[in-house]
UniProtKB/TrEMBL annotation:
Domain HhH-GPD residue range list: 37-188
Family affiliation: Belongs to the Nth/MutY family.
InterPro entries: DNA_glycosylase (IPR011257), Endonuclease3_FeS-loop_motif (IPR003651), HhH-GPD_domain (IPR003265), HhH_base_excis_C (IPR023170), MIG/MutY (IPR044298)
Superkingdom, taxonomy of origin: Bacteria
Cofactor: [4Fe-4S] cluster
Name of the protein: A/G-specific adenine glycosylase
Keyword Transferase attributed: no
Amino acid sequence: MPDLATPLIEWYRENARDLPWRRAGFGAWGVLVSEFMLQQTPVARVIPHLEGWLERWPSPADLAASAPADAVRQWANLGYPRRALWLHRAAIEIRDRHTGVVPRDVDALLALTGIGDYTARAVVVFAYGGRAPVVDTNTRRVLARAVDGRSQPAPAAKRDLAAMDAILPPSDDDAAIVNAAAMELGAVVCTARAPRCDACPIADRCAWRAAGYPDTGDDRRRQARYEGSDRQARGAILKVLRDAATHAVPLGDVVPDWHDPRQRDRAIDSLIADGLAEASEGLLRLPS
DNA sequence: GATCCGTGGTG
DNA sequence: TCACCAAGGAT
């Protein structure tokens, strides 16, 4: 396999975006919060929310001392609000099991709520300078094209970690840069729809390019339609709860004109089951 | 491994 | 317009 690390490192040094979590001294807690927010939410939407969160809760213990409702409300419209709940739980776990310090090894991080293969390794590598393969959707696309000669990546799988590990250089510092560079390349050059191969530092060794950019198909499952979905109903309900000045809403006032009342009631039940809402005495509210 | 889970920008 | 896509994780 051709050397991908060297051109990626050189390209990254020249072209890396200036993102908040890349600033020197940003801190492991800041990195962890940013990674939670970045799970399926675009960079441009995360940045405006990150500073306010960290000013309000500068440490895991600060967040752990607040009610989950405050975390869900601060999460605002970032989407997938379970992440706010999970980040809050992770903060409690960090306080109780790790003396308030974000763990620096993969296994300890994986044991925390809401942290999986990507986030655990991102914290180890980007916050602590450790060595591990960090694989996100951008990296999977870059590897699928450059290494496998495919137009789109296969669905995420464990073997992606080994594939990334295989291109990491010996030095831990360089390996960290290659991890970041692969993500960056996928985000700004080797994009999903219209890749800018003329600006790609590894175009001369890209298997997909060498094969003539074949359409190798896409076996990833398509996202379910949002319009009319339970997710849409849950989102509408949770927005009502976030925006409620009194922090409690009579059940009859929760999206009363929803087109499908059974779907609305099902969504309320599922929010309660997820811990995102609580019901008592005919009132619905965010979790205390 | 398949499915579920928000929200908004974009080609 | 509208399907696609976005620094994933839990079940």
